[in-house]
């Protein structure tokens, strides 16, 4: 089945609500994040939303400007594929891609306590460069808070993708990779 296939994707999402991928520079991490966001934005069930409620697929990075790589690919999908049916909000540097089905893929900066995850229902979340989610003042890794905040709003069948190049051997990203790489018991971990 295709990567965007609903049945295959739903089974995978139920088995692995968290996916962690460690990949180096030039490995197309942002393209992979965009495909993941598009898959969930296009196929997630949104029938249970209240009238006017907007579901989201947040793309989170250590700095807002770093989310623009993933958003750039999503804009390219929208321009190249009429089926994507996305409304590009504002200029190319805008932080939101709105789909016709009432889903927004929105750029968010990593922050303390996972505050960037507050809002509507989350269909999926992309944590780009997750191993770099650090508070500039204290140096404390806050990836766990951000992921937990996203998961608290995750709809059934939703997933969280943590994707990063390696940096430090601390934090949630490292812990997931260290515990499940080669085993994939609770988290699908790829290298």
Task: Describe, in plain words, how this protein is organized in 3D.
Helix content is 30%, strand content 25%. The protein has 191 residues and is of the alpha/beta class. Residues 1-8 have low confidence and may be disordered.
Which descriptors would you attach to this protein?
single chain, 191 residues, alpha/beta, 8-stranded mixed beta sheet
Give the mean pLDDT. 78
Gyration radius, to the nearest Å?
16 Å
- Fraction of residues in H or I helices: 25-40%
Question: How far do the termini sit from each other?
Answer: 22 Å
Q: What is the number of strand segments?
A: 8
* Count of separate DSSP helical elements: 5
Strand order of the largest sheet: 3-4-5-2-6-7-1-8
Derived structural class: alpha/beta
User: Which outline best applies?
Assistant: globular
Provide the β-strand percentage band: 15-25%
Largest sheet: 8 strands, mixed
Which residues form runs of ≥5 with pLDDT under 50? 1-8
Elements, N to C (H/E) = HEHEHEEEEHEHE
SSE topology:
Layout: H1 6-15, E1 18-22, H2 29-43, E2 55-61, H3 68-80, E3 86-88, E4 96-99, E5 103-109, E6 122-128, H4 143-152, E7 154-164, H5 171-180, E8 188-190
Parallel strand pairs: 1-7, 1-8, 2-5, 2-6, 6-7
Antiparallel strand pairs: 3-4, 4-5
Helix pairs in contact: 2-3
What's a concise summary of this model?
The protein is of the alpha/beta class. Helix content is 30%, strand content 25%. It contains five helices and eight strands; from the N terminus they run αβαβαββββαβαβ.
